[in-house]
């Protein structure tokens, strides 16, 4: 299973400009997380800091007991082997065919024979649907295929952590949907810890187990998808609804006078071009392609959500309960329309019927 990434009090600046400060979160092992935020909030900088390409001024990034901010170059090199990174443009070498692009990390960082390299490369290319395209150059294929080739290259060293920097950029909605499904299928098969940076609201709503939001140089929220999708936090609500009305402006955050004027304009019945109604709520999450194993991350996340549901606002509680299947409601001893004061995560030492498929005889 993927490893846990613990970020504590992280602050990054370029000169006198603070990009973000005091960011604290934990990427749960084996789960898919998404980091959202308006343009210019430092989401890509955050990814580069996680992998050690940029050095924060303060804070810690702890992986397997090692602090990447303060460790030696040798230790950092070893920890980086846990990572696979999908860059925005795929970052492929234009003079190499897809096979050689995907094989590059194996040839650079391992002593595997060419026979072993070929087996691994073809396996990863099949995983991302690129069998038969091995001899094509990056300039001869579509943007979506370049993304998939970049993902195959990120997978060849069997990473436990996969970072994806705006994987949907430059892709049409159909290709974005295919790539989203591919990431869920990969998590199903290898249980890696995945962090995706994106602006795409559909991806944010349907793909991850956890959501985070950067704004005003701070981490506004980070937590299970159910919590953020039902949140009334103004920044999160505005972004996930794609509305103009809210704290986020075209360039910087809005002042209170501007926000008050916009609210009065809307209350007077004038449209701002945004959706007429909020789409707040726990929409269905993408599931693995039929035939693939169920994602253990889903069970772990829902257990975590139901252990804290009593701390959430009533509307959020009801929205979360309504999103559960009848079997899950019985499992957590809750029902739609009834307060969740007695919601519990059942004692797994008892023979409580479970809605979760068994894998290898283990719940």
UniProtKB/TrEMBL annotation:
Pfam families: ABC_tran (PF00005). Keywords: ATP-binding, Nucleotide-binding, Transport. Residues 5-241 form the ABC transporter domain. GO terms for molecular function: ATP binding; ATP hydrolysis activity. The keyword ATP-binding applies. PROSITE patterns: ABC_TRANSPORTER_1, ABC_TRANSPORTER_2. The keyword Acetylation does not apply. InterPro entries: AAA+_ATPase, ABC_transporter-like_ATP-bd, ABC_transporter-like_CS, P-loop_NTPase. Residues 337-363 are annotated as: Disordered. CDD domains: ABC_Org_Solvent_Resistant (cd03261). This is Phospholipid/cholesterol/gamma-HCH transport system ATP-binding protein.
């Amino acid at each position: 299973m993927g490893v846990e990434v613990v970020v504590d009090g992280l602050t990054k600046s370029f000169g006198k400009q603070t990009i973000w400060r005091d960011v604290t979160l934990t990427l749960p092992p084996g789960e898919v997380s998404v980091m959202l935020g308006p343009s210019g909030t430092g989401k890509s900088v955050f990814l580069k800091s996680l992998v050690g390409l940029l050095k924060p001024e303060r804070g810690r990034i702890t992986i397997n007991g090692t602090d990447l901010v303060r460790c030696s170059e040798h230790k950092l090199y070893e920890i980086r082997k846990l990572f696979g990174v999908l860059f925005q443009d795929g970052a492929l070498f234009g003079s190499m065919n897809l096979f050689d692009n995907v094989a590059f990390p194996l040839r650079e960082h391992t002593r595997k024979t060419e026979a072993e390299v070929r087996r691994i490369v073809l396996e990863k290319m099949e995983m991302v649907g690129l069998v038969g395209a091995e001899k094509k150059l990056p300039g001869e294929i579509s943007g979506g295929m370049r993304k998939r080739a970049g993902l195959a290259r990120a997978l060849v060293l069997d990473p436990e952590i996969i970072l994806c920097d705006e994987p949907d950029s430059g892709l049409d909605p159909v290709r974005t949907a295919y790539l989203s499904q591919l990431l869920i299928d990969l998590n199903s098969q290898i249980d890696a810890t995945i962090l995706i940076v994106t602006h795409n609201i559909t991806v944010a709503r349907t793909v991850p187990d956890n959501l985070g939001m950067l704004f005003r140089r701070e981490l506004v929220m980070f937590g299970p998808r159910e919590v953020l999708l039902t949140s009334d936090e103004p920044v999160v609500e505005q972004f996930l609804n794609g509305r103009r009305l809210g704290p986020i402006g075209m360039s910087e955050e809005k002042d209170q006078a501007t926000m008050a004027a916009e609210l009065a304009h809307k209350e007077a019945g004038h449209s701002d071009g945004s959706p007429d109604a909020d789409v707040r709520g726990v929409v269905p999450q993408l599931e693995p392609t039929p035939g693939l194993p169920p994602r253990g991350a889903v069970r772990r996340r829902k257990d975590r959500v139901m252990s804290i549901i009593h701390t959430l606002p009533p509307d959020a509680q009801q929205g979360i309960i309504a999103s559960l299947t009848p079997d899950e409601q019985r499992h957590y001893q809750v029902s739609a329309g009834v307060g969740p004061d007695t919601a519990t995560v059942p004692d797994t030492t008892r023979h409580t019927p479970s809605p979760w498929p068994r894998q290898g005889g283990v719940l």
